Amino acid sequence: GYLSWEEIRQATPSAYLFANHTWSHKNMQTAKDKVEFEIGTADTQLSERGLNNPKVFAFTYGLVGDYAKKYLEELEYKLAFGTRPGSTLCKKQRFELPRVRVGDTKLSNYGF
């Protein structure tokens, strides 16, 4: 399931970064108005609660959208993560950083 706002509020702020992952988990390779709604709504809700600072975004399904990258920059996001493997030029690719997808499995499968 998902965390409630109350559960998020009770979490230790220094131990977690609650970042934007869209409002309803939509693919960001879509129309501009949908990108703006999905990212903007989540951004507002997180900001109103003092979360997502620094501003970080994780693309749903790892699918990076060109307009979404531009919109994140307009909203003063610092970083965004996709799931494309490989090396990264941080300054030039800061809105398309790689991340490892951990699916529905036990953390022990990853050595934890």
UniProtKB/TrEMBL annotation:
PROSITE patterns: NODB (PS51677). GO terms for cellular component: extracellular region. Coiled coil: none annotated. Signal peptide: none annotated. Keywords: Signal. The keyword Signal applies. It is found in: Secreted. GO terms for biological process: carbohydrate metabolic process. Residues 1-112 form the NodB homology domain. SUPFAM superfamilies: Glycoside hydrolase/deacetylase. PANTHER family: POLY-BETA-1,6-N-ACETYL-D-GLUCOSAMINE N-DEACETYLASE, PTHR34216. This is NodB homology domain-containing protein.
